[in-house]
Amino acid sequence: MSVKSPPDGLDEVLDAVDSATREHVSRAPAMEIIEEPSSFVLACEMPGAEREDIRVDVSPHRVVVAALPRAAREARSRPGSGAPYQDFERAVPLPAEVDPEGAEARLNNGVLEVILPKKRMGGSGVYRLPAL
Length: 132
Fold this sequence. Notes:
Elements: H1 10-24, E1 31-35, E2 39-45, E3 54-59, E4 62-67, H2 70-77, E5 88-93, E6 104-108, E7 111-117, E8 127-128
């Protein structure tokens, strides 16, 4: 059995498409939810982000984490410069209802941890956590 080679120039076209695709692909930070007896802990990798770069909104059934790292902001102000980190926003549904007003967040060594106490009774709405 013989293998036919692609027409002239096809390899170059495929390489160019592959290269262009890689330049525009952004990666969302890794996230996980850990269930503890009285709370959930959302852990999110936030390399390069500082406390003032991060926004966390908590409602009884989901958490929204958003960030625009300073490196990305500075790169946007300088045309032609590439940013090592990009802004993002991600909504994460929770496996059970939580108490938004009891939520806490901390940023430690590039990892955001949001502690979400499980809901006992009453209350509703969305609560924005104060600056970390």
